[in-house]
Amino acid sequence: MPIKVSELLALDVVQRLRAKSNVMGALLVLHAWALILGSMALFAWWPSPFTFLLAVMVIGCRQLGLAILMHDAAHGLLFANRRMNDWVGSRLCAFPVFTSLDLYRPYHLKHHRFTQQADDPDLGLSAPFPISGQSLRRKIVRDLSGQTAYQRRGEQIRRALGNRELSTARRLANLWRAERGPFVVNLLLLGGLSLAGYWWLYPVLWLLPLATWYQLVSRIRNIAEHAVVPDNDDPLRNTRTTLINPLERLFIAPYWVNYHLEHHLFMFVPCWRLPQAHRAMVAAGWREQMEVQRGYRSVLQRAAARQHGDDRGEGPRPSVQHI
């Protein structure tokens, strides 16, 4: 059953939570790119197995961070100015990780409208759980080996090409329209690194993290948000918040994405205010009714609790990448 915001928090608290900030939006985008470029610079300056692994994990997590900031832009929350919100959300957040803000926005809003119900386009991400530990390990291997990225990217390209009955020229034109933004932005990123004398950082520390660590942390976050929740019909329990430590924030869940229950309850709250929303809910006495877990290890243990038999697959894949 839907729940009204006025039933959860006082109006003055809600008004404070909904405030947007152009400055904060700009700082978040700059922070993501600073960590990405800084990690590349660290490895270029001090190449070693340790700095390589560190860079892959930090960059892959910040690539997820760009997708999360695109998610905020899809809700009109990244910047108070709508034109700036959509321009930055597309060109500096979505396109670099081969995603479309325009395609994502209506899809994602439908997920909010029908959370964990039959019409939820993301239901296939949570419905198969719990699975066996063996199945989860196979999924992790596919993520880290690049198989998941290869499959997802192939699906994106096939959807962009359109119906096979169309002419080759028409299908290529469809592909160009769909992929023009990501192609141009990634070409600019490659060009910038080439001008700096480090073209090889693009395949090694941009595409590789995107094909490996980004896939894994996206899966972990997807599982944590809606898999094995207590009640698909209760808005306080069909979505999960996961309380995390600083290492999990650095390597798995950037920009407060772990406060997913608060995001579903208060879609108008920018990501950087979600911890405030969580504290307000606790102060208002809602903590015992909320689905909250501590740490991703706990969530994954619940998701991989099936003892016997093979997994039930992953269900239908969403038509747009879930964030």
- Kindly report the spatial arrangement of strands forming the biggest sheet: 1-2
Low-confidence stretches: none
Write down the overall geometry.
globular
The H/E string reads: HHHHHHHHHHHEHHHEH
Distance between the termini: 24 Å
Radius of gyration: 20 Å
Q: Work out the number of β strands.
A: 2
* Number of domain modules: 1
Domain Fatty acid desaturase: 47-282
Pfam family, one: FA_desaturase
GO molecular function: sphingolipid delta-4 desaturase activity
Protein name: Fatty acid desaturase
What does this structure look like?
By secondary structure, the chain is mainly alpha-helical. The protein has one domain (5-126, 147-303). It is built from 15 helices and 2 strands. The chain has helices at residues 11-17, 22-45, 49-74, 82-94, 101-113, 123-126, 133-144, 147-161, 168-195, 201-211, 213-226, 246-251, 260-265, 274-283, 296-303; strands spanning 241-243, 292-294. Helix 2 (22-45) runs antiparallel to helix 3 (49-74), helix 3 (49-74) packs across helix 10 and helix 11 packs across helix 15.
Give a nutshell description of this structure.
The protein has about 325 residues and is an all-alpha fold. The chain has one domain.
Helix/strand layout:
Elements: H1 11-17, H2 22-45, H3 49-74, H4 82-94, H5 101-113, H6 123-126, H7 133-144, H8 147-161, H9 168-195, H10 201-211, H11 213-226, E1 241-243, H12 246-251, H13 260-265, H14 274-283, E2 292-294, H15 296-303
Parallel strand pairs: 1-2
InterPro entries: FA_desaturase_dom
Keywords: Membrane, Transmembrane, Transmembrane helix
Organism: Enhydrobacter aerosaccus
